[in-house]
Amino acid sequence: MWTVLAAGAAAAAAVSYAGYATMAPGSQFYGRTLVHGSDSRQMALTYDDGPNDPHTLRLLDVLAKHEAKATFFLIGKYVRQRPDIARAIEAAGHAIGNHTYNHPNLALVSASRVRQELEDCRKVLEDAVGSSQLLFRPPFGGRRPVVLKTVRSLGMTPVMWSVTSYDWSAESSDAIVKRVTSEIDSHRTPRGEIALLHDGSHRGFGTDRKYTVEATRMLLGKYSAEGKKFVAVPDLARTS
To answer: What's the pTM value of the predicted model, to 2 decimals?
Structure first.
């Protein structure tokens, strides 16, 4: 009896963890992803769900003033709407990544839909900036084996994050900075952090991200003063 119960509990725990691993940014259960770098003197700010007018352009101004590089994971349908913003990101020397065309949770869709989302976004990015973009971030962090297999078959690197800003629900820039700082301070081993922020929203083009723009300015000032260098993910990845 107890053996049966124990086996059932173990099976339930395994199923629970497998579900958790589809979304947890640091999990490597379904395959290796880039979560952070090894050089604690570096930090990678990453922005999902753009391009977005006017906040992506405002972010570019803030980053330029601090001579910082960042990474933008762009939604294909928004790139098709505003390819000029995607070109502005590339012209400023930032990295660009594929964030699917429509922003579905890839852990919940078919294998054919996964490939279609990635290829549609890849094509629109190529049309906008003239080259393939080899970074990928899954919407909501959702992935499973077929997602990572498809990503790698297209020659892309899956990128997660080590710091969550929760800027999509923050009520002030101070709250975003406090959250980022708290998560960084909680890590026992210094490392090159990858911070998740948003310059847009999958819910609609034109979403207000003024708090994220101001929080970025504050984070750049704070961590630059501590000797951090803000780099794009490909440069952070070289040290991981």
So the answer is: 0.91
